[in-house]
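Chapter review: from sequence to fold.
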Amino acid sequence: MMAKSEKKSLRRMQLEELAILKEFVEICKRHDLRYYILGGTLLGAIRHKGFIPWDDDVDVAMPRSDYERFLQIDRSEFVEPFALSTFEEDEGNHYPWARMTSSRMKLINHMANIPRTESAWIDLIPLDGMPDGLVARTLHKLHLSFWWNLNQIVQFDRLVDQKRKRGFLGRLSLRIASSFKWLSSIVDYKVCLRKLNSILASCPYESGSKDIINYLAAYGFDEIFPRSAFKEGSTYQFEDMKLVGPANADIVCRQIYGEGYMTPPPVCERNKHHAEIIDE
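The token string follows.
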């Protein structure tokens, strides 16, 4: 169980993320941009009508064409304390997706070996199509896996959660990856991030493929969903907001979290949040 002080700190993070989310939705409305809440944010909306009580994360996905349009919005529209962060513009951003941040709250992220000081954020992840043919899909997956794993190796100490419980194969993979960390001296992580986005964009969301993928999110290839589950989306209650999510949230949640997704996991299996507020 979380201590009272930890619960209070977590709630402060959630409320700041909620403020960022509200600003994000307003910008999307002004520019007629599509988005869907996914991952723990969608699960929280379905099961808790808001944040999962022990979670400090907000996950929003956008069809890539809308995502790219969002990245092109004049930065003057992001009024302080809010800002848009991408790996191309922000040396502190080492992720292949964008973030919308708030400088009003600073956090220390303890997930990996190298602690990172970051502004409070929400993740903005592009949605892409997925090749329909078996051969084309297999090659697409191999291509993505190569660059994803190379990026994890190159940024091993910065990105990989080495404290997370893993089985034998997971621990073995971790040890193998750590032995290749020297590659960071010859491979620029930005090359990996650009390649990942380029490969994903090669099968556009608008391609009409049977499936779409939220590859850059937490579960990779487990987030390949039938296009029919998304459509124009449905609205879901999240805290004091109405947010757009997949038209068929049940299909999406079952695929990511299993049949019993409406039942909260035991306390010992709940994700531990890794961020700590810096009070200035």
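Two observations follow directly from the output. DSSP finds eight helices and ten strands in the chain. Helices lie at 4-31, 39-48, 64-71, 134-154, 156-159, 168-178, 189-201, 249-257.
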